[in-house]
Amino acid sequence: MTSVTFSLVALDCQNPAALAEFYQGVLGGGISHDYEDWWVLREPGGARIAFQRAPGHRAPDWPRADSNSQQAHLDFEVADMAAAQEKVLALGATALDLDDDGGKRGFRVYADPAGHPFCLCRAA
User: Fold this and answer.
1) CA dist., res. 70 & res. 61, Å (int)
2) Positions of E strands within the chain
3) What pTM value is reported for the model?
4) pLDDT tens digit string along 54-95?
5) 18 — phi, psi (to 5°)?
């Protein structure tokens, strides 16, 4: 049987350098790029997120499941929700759904500067 190993997640955007820098601010790690249209962030734990230039990229509408659905989103576990929220908003994220029912729901939803939804999730 052939072995399959996860490699990375790639996000389309109009400005891959700027989006890579946003996620570097959120996660830390190092950025590399071989082409102007393809940037990669390797976060300290080893996971990689790639950012690919897609001219005419349109941010997904959240939450929808029709012709402009979110298609995918990223989840990030955090120990301190308030501190993590302050950080991502300062880096340029947009709040989409902060109603976590007084902490009962373990996540809050944001959009990165290119409009991709992502969640901050309370670490278990």
Assistant:
1) 6
2) 9-13, 30-35, 38-42, 48-53, 74-78, 94-97, 107-111, 117-122
3) 0.84
4) 998 888 888 777 777 767 788 899 999 999 999 999 999 999
5) -65, -40
